[in-house]
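thought: fold this chain, then report.
action: predict
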Amino acid sequence: MRGTQSFGLSNVFMIIGFALSMIGCAKGGSDAQSTQVIDDASVAGVVSETKTVSSRIKHTCKQNSEKCFTDTYTVASNPTGKVDVLFVLQTSDSIAEQRAFIASEIDAFVQTLPPTADFNIAVMLSHGSTSSWSGRLYRAASEPIVLKSSELSNADIQTYLSQKLTQVVADPDSGGGEEGMFSLFNGITTPALLSESQGLGFFRADAALGVVFIGDRRDICAAIPAGVPAETDPVKIDARIRDCEGLTAAGLTNRLHVLKGSQDLQVSAITYVDSPAPAGKEIGYGYIDMVALSPGVAIDIAHDDISDGLASIAELAGQGSSIQTQFELTHDNVDPSTVKVTVNGVAATFTIEGNVVTVTSPIPAGATVVIDYCLKGKAKCHGHHHNHRKCRPLHWWKNCWQYKGGKWCYKWNYSDCNQQQNNNGGKYNTKNPYKYNTGKSNYKYNIW
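observation:
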């Protein structure tokens, strides 16, 4: 059931901190070994009946029957325990209050970082090409540009990171600072800027990368879904013309993969996710599209169900500095008597609690762990943004879309079809399960 509890950022930072602390060195995903340019048309491939997930390991989920699944994990061959964390921050006045609140809760993020991990943390402002801060790591005053766990205490990191999040400069040429995608793209593709960051100890070649976008409005370079009002602010329109040609969420994600090579990548966002956004705010298009293309979680500033967020982040879990032994299955309600585990094809001993399997047999680096299991009941339809990496049942859209009362309606996050997402006069597009035909235009749902 969709949660409507008030948003707790301390919990969110614990979620994101846990996720970032767990990512390690092996890059996964269905295009993990590809460095070719990805266009927007390939985004639909992110959702498939056999789902590949990148965390510290490769993780695929395959449905074998109505209730039975196989989860396959490829353990990292050389975990380094090094992670770079980049906060990409909108600097417009509209998000000042949220920035201050996030900064006040930053201790939950810092305290979640494991003491043995090697974390480097930095902030980048969402500025366009006319700003000297575009693509550069930000320094608010005299604090270190890169906050290194090897040199600073958690208390110092908390103080300095709060300073970076609250003492910002605006960019009047990008709506106050709403070009996070361009700024990040600029920072990793402009040789001088990338060299500067790497010289400061960031974007390390042997470190995983976690990116966290923070914004209360859509990115100026975002692709806007049909039906969403176009931008009318002349300053933002000029910025889009100036900086955004050819820049897409898919293309930027691919650039990040090229940068990290075999290392892991995770993208999260703290923004407005669920429509409608509050007055004066916008859904974080661009950022939530980036999250959909990489392991991570989209946290809704207005309201969010933390349990779902924790479940999604748990899918990314892996011990960054050691071989993983615990594996979170992609489905709940597991029948323990049906679970079978093999390591490199050999039966392994294990324990199970809920949907977490702990392998007690030795697991060598680079091993393939296969877990077969069945559920006590039917798999549920996954529609919530936190569940975008769940292993979906075969032909899952047949369970999510239902025809009732002369209408096609979408069964949103397990709730009754009559109560949610009723669409008048449309017909389900059987050729593309990600589109709903209204008769006038097609709306392409976010690939969560």
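thought: worth noting. The mean pLDDT is 73.
final: tokens above.
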